[in-house]
Structure formats: structure tokens, C-alpha cells
Amino acid sequence: MILDFKMIQKFYSELNFKIKEIRSIIKRPMTLSEKILYIHFFKEKIKKLCFKKNEYINIYPDRVAMQDATAQMSLLQFIQTNSVKTLVPTSIHCDHLIYANDGSSIDLKKSIDDNQEIYNFLRSVSNKYGIDFWEPGSGIIHQIILENYAFPGGLMIGTDSHTPNAGGLGMLAIGVGGAEAAEVMSGSILELKFPKIIGVLLKGKMSGWTSAKDVILRLSGMIGVMGASNSIIEYFGEGTKNISCVGKATICNMGAELGATSSIFPYDFHMNDYLLNNDREELSNLIKLNKIENSLRSDYEVYNNPYNFYEKVIEINLSKLEPHINGPFTPDKSTPISKIKEECKKNNWPIQIEIGLIGSCTNSSYEDLSKVVHIIKQAKKKKLKIKSKFLITPGSRKIFSLLKKNKYIEIFKSIGAKIFSNACGPCIGQWKRYKNKNENFKKNTIIHSFNRNFSSRNDGNPNTYAFIASPEIVTALSFSGKINFDPRKDFLKNELGEYVKLDEPQYINKYNNIFEKNDINKLGCISSSMNKNISIKINKNSERLQLLQPFSFWDGKDLSNVRLLIKVKGKCTTDHISMAGPWLKYRGHLENISENLLIKAVNFFNNKTNHIKNIITGFYDSIPKTAKFYKKNNISTLIVGEDNYGEGSSREHAAMEPRFLGVRVVLVKSFARIHETNLKKQGILALTFLKPNDYYKINEEDIFHFHMNDFEKKFNLKVDIIHKNGKKEKIITKHSYNQKQIQWFKFGSSLNFIRKNQL
Ligand code: MIC
Ligand code: SF4
């Protein structure tokens, strides 16, 4: 069964014609990303198609996807737009709130009980406004999107930073904040800074222990967590034809870790195979019928002369690519497996792997799990025992059913693996690894196939060294129990005392891999049907849901007498600003979740977390408490940070919480894209230092004055700093607000602005 069939049918039938028309205007060959962006801009005046890099463009997405943790706040904002229905097809996926403790059935039941209020809210909002609702246990948002909704050439936004996963099926998919999604659902356009397009030329063919994950682990090492900021990564070259559709999705998924706006692969036979295996033959037929294959790739001139068309071209030779192990603490610390022994010694990483984990949206496909099975089967034959604990979270109910049908679940269980629900699980910290709160958080190593390994993310233990690798490598290393094991060369001692070597993993059982017919209801979806009469009730005493109150307008004056809340030292991801794990339960309650504001960020002045000086009282206290004190006393505050501030998630709570607690300005060396937009949307002044070293001029007890008279005319803003000794210093800061975004700031938030315009 094909979802959105009519919409896609129309889209494909017009595609070639529209591309021809666009080409006649811009008069040059186009990359795939440009084609998709222009096509979705098409509704507007076509004559205005000559975009410059960094210029804002307005586009119309085909779909919106939301997961339960971000959907709550997004829907609370959507309700404020007074819309009658969603004007763009939308789906909600219950995947983030599910525990990963005792195994799938117990965890799922308990999660459904504990989150009933939230699920009821999401279900009834879906029903009222015509949204597809995917129930708890149906799977992880990005797997479900790939299986059911993604289509080559389409454009989607999602309230999750790994939305670009759909690029594995040739869709341009972009992670956004909840306010942006709410606006698009209510019929507004999506405003996007025209991205740079980076070309990644893949040559050769992978073999042995190398897999798709290693392409992105390697690329992370090459360009780092900021390497693709405001860029789309477009893969091309012969090598792309040697990577399956789900492998491509893995690569696109983790582009988020490089700051990419999106990542995409050109249409090929692997995508076609994936559509056929997923009961979406009609879609594959539509592509053939309309002869649009070439419109779903860059023009051949681009492939022949990539250096002329891409911002830059990065080459990766798949034939020479080794398996990689990234981490600890950041996804871009990349070590080829041949160097892992040396790196372990050099850095004194704990060698013993306590736990190996397979899953997350980036690597939980049937193909991934089949390769794991292949390794387990041969290890058993070779009389090897697994040395680390082994935990598995399949990506979707569809995948789970096929694993079960092919008796793979039994194989996992035969080595003592624990199978969690089809959900995010340990990837988002829903894993109670330490049953006892007072347990010693000792230094230890885990390895997983996820995409993020920020400190404390999975198990709350800052001393856990989390490494990322492909599912195959995670499995092999779990059999060895050591992080410095190279399955390509090293031998393992088996139960008989013999030394054996693991064979290279294979994707087996090709002919049993066809998923059963798509019955989306059986897969866990209540498909959209509208019932306008449903009233959305939120209990006033609820701890978990709270209707939003509009933020206050800007009075048009300078921001004066602003105090420093915290000067953050080093990495500050959205996990530092608004932690996940235990806090996920407050994602629909702004006041309660604000109690976690920046509690993981390091204070520059004392190197401690959640310990800052209250300048008025002179005492040290937690960040939320101090912020509340300032708010109560009408003192505006400022957060200062370093590079790539707000890296990681799309969660807008990281912008709403400071706004709620009286922060007026966030001033940093540089921002991560989604977070910067989220701050602007929520009416916070997002500024960067003109000279990054001015960061060091900021002292704990300074008072700040922001000169706002040039805000609408210039991109530079003057700031006076009055130091404790009375000395004044001036610095220049920059902003990137366009005229519309200035209105958001004036009105106190983008939603206030929209509401005002609706009146
Ligand atoms: C994540 O991987 O950090 C999340 C949880 O999926 C987030 C969304 C969120 O904060 O809820 C993301 O990647 O955007
Ligand atoms: Fe879920 Fe983890 Fe993927 Fe985020 S990265 S969507 S938490 S599985």
C-alpha cells in the first residue's frame, strides 16, 4: 500500500516539465539538491530563482514528521495558531519515551502506562487535526519514514535532527524545530538559508568488515562536527551504486553529526529494490512510467565536472576504507581500526567493553541486524562465547516481524542478548543501566551502533566512554570483549582453547527478506482522519503538559543592565542545555522542563556543572534556581558560549527554557543551525562575537548593554561591557536576522508574529 499516492503521482507527472522550465531560467546544469529545492519553491514566482548562498529561500515541504518528545511542544504551538487542520501531511511517532530496561514486552507496557497522558494527548491532537499517529512499539521515526513515506525527489521536514535519514531514498529531508513544523503545518512556508552543496565522491567498492557506517564515521573524522554547517552533503560517483538503500540512509542520518542541513543520494537500483521489498511497487512503477530517473539525480554535467558545481568535493575511496571506531564523547573523533590499539594506549581508554549495543535510527535495519546474526552464527560454530553484555533495539515492527519469521530473534537470545522495544531506547537515555542511583559511576567502555556519544547521553554516567561503530564491528568487538580488537587480523581463544578468527560478515538470506504486505494499521499506525469536534483537554495540574503563554514583546529599547547567567566552557550540545533521559517526561511542560536548564554545561569560572554565582546575592547556586531569581527580580540575563553552541538535537526546549527563565541574549563564537533558528523563533537575541577571542573578555560579574538602534539596518551590534572595577569595554557582535526574523524578535516569538498577522 502506498501512502500519499495521489500526491506523489501528481508530483512525478509534472517533475520533468518543471525541471526543464527551471533549467531554462537558471541556464545551467543543476545538482540534485538544487533540483529538489527549486521544485519545492516552484509555487512562487519562478522568475526569482537565482539564489545566492546564504540567502533565505521559501520552500513548501511535502511532509512533516514528528517524534513524541518534540511533537508535544510543537503541537502546543500548533494549537496556538488556531488552525482547523494540518495543511501538510503529517505523522507522529511514539518512539522516544519508551524504556529500555527489562526487555520489550515489559518495557512497552510500563511505558504506555507511565506515558498515558502524553500518548492520549498526541492521539487526540492527531485525530482532531488529521495526523497519522504511530503508536508506541511501531518503531523509530526515521525507519518508519523510510519504510512508508519517503519518496525520491520529495522534500520533508521533521522535528528531529536525524530527519535527513530519508536521503537514503533520495528524499531531501531537513531537521527543524517544533515551532517551524507548527508553522508549516498551519500553511506557512519554510524559510531556509540557501545551503552550500558539498559533493562527496565515492569511488570503489567496500569489502570485508567495512560497511556504510564507516563512510560517515570517516567523513566525520575528516570534516568534524561543524564541517557541513549550512550545507547539504550530496553523494555521487560509482561508489554510491555499491551501497544499499538502508546503508545510504545510515550515511545520511549521521550527516546531522556534521551539522549538515541534509544529506542525499541520487536515485538508483538499490532504492528501487528497497521500494519493491517494502511493498511500494507502485511508486517504483511511477518513476519508470514518468521516465523521471534523470530528474532524481544531478545533471550529467555536474557529475562530469563536479568541482565546477559543488562548494567543495571530498573523495572517499571505498575500496581502501577501513572499519572505523569513533569516540569517545564526540562522534567526530575517528580512529581507523588499524590504529585503535595505539590510540587506546595513547589515550588510556578503558579496554574492556562492558556492553555492546545495536540499534538506533541510524543502524537498526533488517540488513544491519542480519549481518549481526551472521556473525553470531559463525561465532557459535567456532565455539566462541560473547564477552560483553549485548543489547538490541530493532528499528520497527516491520523489521522485528521479519527477524522473528526468520528465527533471528532466537539466535539473538541464544547468546543472552536482551531485545528492547522497537524504539530509541538507550540511544536517548531511556536505559536504566544503573539500577541503584548511588552506584559508583566508574570509568568504563561501551560500544554502540548509534549516532551520538555525547557524555552521559546513554546511561547518565559521565565516566562512560561510548564508542560508535557499525553493527558488525560492535558485534565482533563484543565477542572479544575488547575495544582494541581488530577482527580482520586478530584471533580469539574459544571454549576449547583454540585460536579462531571470525569470517567477514555477510548479508545473508536475501530471498527471505521481503517484508510482508504493508498493512499500516497492523504496523502500528492510526491513519489520519479528522474529527474537528474533539476537544483537547489539558489538566491544569498536569506535571507533563502545560498550555503555553505567549512570550512578551520587545519594547524597542536597548537591552540594558543585562547580567551573565553563565559563560559556558567548551562543548555545549542541546544535551547540555536541556538534558534528555529522565527529563524527557517534561517535554510538554515548559515550566517543569526548565528545571534542567544548562545543568550539564561547564561554568568557565570554576569548571563545575550547575554551579554559578548569583551576582546579586553573591552566593553560588544551580543554574535554574539562579535564573529564576533573576527572572523574579526582572533582571535580564545573557548566556555566553563557544563554538557550535546548540549542536545535536532539534529540541526547541533548549531555546524555550532560557526564554522562559528570562534570558534575553545568547552570545557565542558560533551556533549550530537548528538551534540558532530555534532561538530566533522563541524571541531570544542570538548573537556571535565578531572577534571570537572577545569571549575571553567576559567576566563573571560584568554588566552588559546591547545597542539595538542598528538592529534592523546592520548585521553588527555594539555591546558595552561594564566590568566589576567600573572599567568599560566595547565589543562588536554579529547577528543574522533577516527582516522577517526581526519581526519575530519584536513580537517576542515567531508564533506571536503569526498570530498577530492572523487577526
Ligand atoms: C536525539 O537524538 O538527540 C533526539 C532525541 O532524537 C533529538 C530530538 C529531541 O531532542 O527530542 C534530535 O536528534 O533532534
Ligand atoms: Fe531516536 Fe536516537 Fe535516532 Fe534520536 S538518534 S531519533 S534518540 S534513535
Short recap of the structure:
The protein is α/β, with parallel strands linked by helices and 759 residues long. It has 25 helices and 31 strands.
Describe the structure.
Helix 3 crosses helix 5 (116-129), helix 8 (212-223) packs parallel to helix 9 and helix 24 (739-747) packs across helix 25. The protein is globular. It contains 25 helices and 31 strands. 55% of the residues are buried. Strand 27, helix 23 and strand 28 form a beta-alpha-beta unit. The chain has a seven-stranded mixed barrel. It is α/β, with parallel strands linked by helices. Alpha-methylisocitric acid binds next to helix 3.
Please outline the helices and strands:
Elements (H helix, E strand, L loop, with lengths): L4 H22 L5 H8 L16 E4 L3 E5 H13 L9 E4 L10 H11 L1 H14 L2 E3 L6 H9 L5 E4 L13 E4 L2 H8 L4 E4 L2 E8 L8 H12 L7 E6 L8 H9 L8 E3 L4 H9 L3 H9 L10 H5 L1 H4 L2 E6 L6 E3 L7 E3 L3 H8 L5 E6 L7 H16 L7 E4 L4 H9 L2 H7 L3 E2 L24 E5 L15 E5 L2 H10 L11 E2 L5 E2 L24 E2 L32 E11 L4 H4 L12 H4 L8 E2 L8 E2 L6 E2 L1 H10 L4 E5 L11 H8 L2 E6 L4 H9 L3 E5 L13 E4 L9 E7 L5 E7 L4 H9 L2 H9 L1
Parallel strand pairs: 2-3, 2-5, 3-4, 5-6, 8-9, 8-11, 9-10, 14-15, 14-17, 15-16, 17-18, 22-26, 26-27, 27-28
Antiparallel strand pairs: 1-7, 4-21, 12-13, 19-20, 22-23, 22-29, 24-25, 28-31, 29-30, 30-31
Alpha-methylisocitric acid (MIC) binds next to α3.
